[in-house]
């Protein structure tokens, strides 16, 4: 199944969305709660950009948990390390969701793709890799832009992810103004 791929978010724009005013549009604590992040979890954040969400994930998993934040753009990872390098339980890597060879089988409690699934070229392989690294009964949460992606691509995303072995849990359409969630579990 060939799904549309959208352009990568340019690294030079990251400062526009990585600022304190973003919480006016998106309550990040609420987003982390909707994802199902709990203390002690090991979370994979695919498409971390400059690490804005990483900071909230790191706080939510606490000292007993950890966050592996990946992005295919080296410039984004460098920005994330520069801005969020103080987070002791967050680890930044240049990597693609389509190649998670640095992550062990069933190592992850929750994988989270925040406005990034639509940018992945090889979605089929990415979902297979996510299935491989997520633990039994682990979660996959995807948040996509409401208007330009979610309403058009939601059903094809669900179909692909279910075909790779995940069970659909819910679609949250009204979590905030900018985006909507799809949530799955690995059985």
Automatic annotation (TrEMBL):
A biological process (GO) of this protein is:
methylation
Organism this protein belongs to: Candidatus Acidulodesulfobacterium ferriphilum
Q: Which domain of life is it from?
A: Bacteria
Matches recorded under Pfam families: Methyltransf_31
Q: What is this protein called?
A: Methyltransferase domain-containing protein
Give one GO molecular function term.
methyltransferase activity
InterPro entries (UniProt xref): Methyltranfer_dom, SAM-dependent_MTases_sf
Which residue ranges does the record assign to the Methyltransferase domain?
38-158
Q: Which Gene3D superfamilies match?
A: Vaccinia Virus protein VP39 (3.40.50.150)
Give the keywords, sorted. Methyltransferase, Transferase
């Amino acid at each position: 199944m060939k799904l549309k791929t959208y352009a990568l978010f340019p690294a030079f724009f990251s400062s526009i969305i990585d600022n304190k005013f973003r919480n006016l549009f998106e309550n990040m604590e609420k987003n982390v709660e909707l994802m199902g992040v709990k203390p002690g979890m090991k979370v994979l954040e695919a498409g971390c950009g400059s690490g804005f969400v990483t900071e909230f994930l790191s706080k939510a998993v606490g000292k007993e948990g950890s966050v592996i934040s990946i992005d295919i753009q080296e410039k984004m990872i460098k920005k994330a390390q520069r801005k969020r390098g103080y987070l002791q339980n967050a680890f930044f890597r240049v990597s693609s969701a389509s190649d998670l060879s640095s992550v062990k089988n069933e190592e992850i409690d929750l994988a989270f793709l925040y406005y990034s699934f639509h940018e992945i070229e090889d979605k089929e392989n990415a979902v297979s890799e996510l299935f491989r690294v997520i633990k039994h009964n682990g979660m996959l949460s995807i948040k996509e832009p409401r208007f330009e992606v979610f309403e058009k691509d939601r059903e094809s995303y669900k179909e692909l992810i279910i075909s790779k072995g995940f069970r659909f849990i819910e679609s949250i359409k009204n979590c905030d103004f900018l985006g909507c969630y799809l949530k799955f579990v690995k059985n």
